[in-house]
């Protein structure tokens, strides 16, 4: 008997999940590259205002994380809906095995490297914070600790991984429950839209109540609207609930241009301390990312496609998970120990960049891809 083909596979070359209907979109890897490079530059000395000028270079690069959230919600929801329509069920076991094979091996190596750093190079006053960050990352609770103001040292960036993991635990179960219960598509879409409004409204209310910025930046409930925005657009696209007239297509292309320009402007100028970011712009930024992503999937604008589908951007997008995991460790190590080795200034920045690319490439080709191939070897379906 010939086995029925699985509707979802993991591409061991790119680490991306794909399905016969949705396929592979190189521009989405390019979008990942834009998001991760924005975050890296924000965490580097380049991500600040240029001295004695009014010029900025990706000072708003922290918004790249919002792009990752929207993209994650979009892709996960698309694949879950396609699996449901293909088989009239969703294998949660397969879903979580795919997530584990994709995320845990590289994270484990990074956390091991952090533990080694704490044991060998860290100052005595750093060891506790580093180890707290290691264990919080392993337990996927670093977002709660960071929101509470706890020092996670070089692992504070894993707050976003914790938030995504909580999304993976809740959303597939919720979507499956609604689908199995026979909810109408319009009702599911309405629930997701209400979730976006609730998250945005709750965040705006907390701002008026005087909550601290870490609460807004790291807490998962403050980022739910970005993840749900991706889910909403995936549902609308998968269920063909968007207009398809020529006038609508033209209007949406114009909207995608506006959204791309708006994102570019905000990546250059937004600052963590701006009140409007938390009052309302996080939601509009998530909406802009969703519009651009939908355009890239269906009818990409030629300038966007040209910029995002070139081989360099696609490769950086494929290794974006490793880039995100490793860059704070490399930046911190370079800053703390480069000057002692006589490597300072631009030479230090170059050494950090070269080291980061080398380590990430090794992680991708020798850790991440082999683990993804285990899925096929052990027939995890």
User: Main beta sheet, described?
Assistant: 2 strands, antiparallel
> Which runs of at least 5 residues are low in confidence (pLDDT < 50)?
1-10, 47-51
Strand-residue proportion: under 5%
Mean pLDDT: 90
SSE ordering: EEHHHHHHHHHHHHHHH
Taking the alpha carbons of the first and last residues, their distance comes to 16 Å
Q: Quickly give the structural class.
A: mainly alpha
Please give a structural write-up.
The chain has one domain. The model is unreliable at 1-10 and 47-51 (pLDDT under 50). The chain contains 15 helices and 2 strands. The protein has a two-stranded antiparallel ribbon. The chain is mainly alpha-helical and 381 residues long.
Main attributes of the structure:
2 strands, 15 helices, globular, 381 residues, mainly alpha, disordered N terminus
TL;DR of this structure?
The protein is mostly helical and 381 residues long. It has 15 helices and two strands.
What topology does this entry show?
Layout: E1 9-10, E2 17-18, H1 26-43, H2 64-87, H3 92-120, H4 124-138, H5 142-147, H6 159-180, H7 185-208, H8 213-218, H9 224-238, H10 246-269, H11 275-298, H12 302-308, H13 311-318, H14 320-337, H15 345-377
Antiparallel strand pairs: 1-2
Helix pairs in contact: 1-2, 1-12, 1-13, 1-14, 2-6, 2-9, 2-11, 3-4, 3-14, 3-15, 7-9, 7-11, 9-11, 10-11, 14-15
């Amino acid at each position: 008997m010939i086995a029925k083909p699985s509707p979802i596979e993991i591409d061991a070359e790119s680490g991306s999940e794909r399905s016969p209907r949705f396929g592979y979109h190189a521009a989405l890897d390019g979008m990942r590259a834009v998001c991760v490079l924005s975050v890296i530059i924000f965490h580097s000395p380049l991500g600040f205002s240029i001295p004695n000028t009014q010029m900025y270079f990706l000072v708003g690069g922290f918004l790249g994380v919002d792009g990752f959230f929207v993209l994650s919600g979009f892709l996960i929801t698309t694949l879950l809906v396609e699996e449901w329509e293909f088989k009239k069920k969703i294998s949660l076991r397969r879903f979580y095995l795919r997530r584990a094979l994709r995320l845990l091996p590289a994270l484990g190596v990074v956390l091991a490297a952090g533990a080694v750093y704490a044991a060998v190079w860290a100052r005595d006053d750093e060891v506790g914070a580093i180890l707290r960050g290691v264990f919080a990352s392993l337990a996927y609770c670093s977002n709660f600790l960071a929101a509470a103001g706890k020092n996670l040292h070089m692992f504070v960036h894993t707050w976003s991984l914790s938030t995504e993991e909580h999304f993976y635990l809740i959303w597939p179960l919720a979507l499956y429950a609604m689908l199995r219960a026979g909810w109408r598509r319009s009702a599911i879409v309405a629930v997701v839209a209400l979730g976006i409004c609730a998250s945005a409204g709750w965040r705006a209310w907390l701002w008026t109540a005087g909550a601290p910025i870490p609460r807004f930046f790291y807490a998962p409930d403050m980022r739910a609207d970005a993840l749900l925005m991706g889910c909403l657009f995936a549902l609308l696209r998968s269920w063909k609930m968007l207009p398809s007239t020529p006038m609508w297509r033209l209007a949406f292309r114009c909207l995608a241009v506006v959204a791309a320009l708006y994102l570019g402007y905000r990546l250059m100028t937004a600052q963590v301390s701006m009140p409007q970011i938390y009052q309302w712009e996080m939601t509009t930024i998530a909406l802009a990312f969703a519009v651009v992503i939908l355009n890239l999937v269906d009818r990409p604008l030629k300038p966007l496609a040209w910029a995002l589908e070139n081989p360099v951007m696609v490769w950086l997008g494929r290794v974006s998970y490793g880039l995100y995991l490793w860059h704070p460790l490399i930046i911190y190590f370079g800053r703390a120990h480069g000057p002692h080795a006589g490597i300072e200034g631009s030479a230090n920045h170059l050494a950090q960049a070269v080291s980061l690319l080398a380590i990430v490439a090794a992680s991708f080709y020798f850790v991440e891809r082999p683990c993804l191939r285990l899925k096929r070897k052990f027939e995890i379906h």
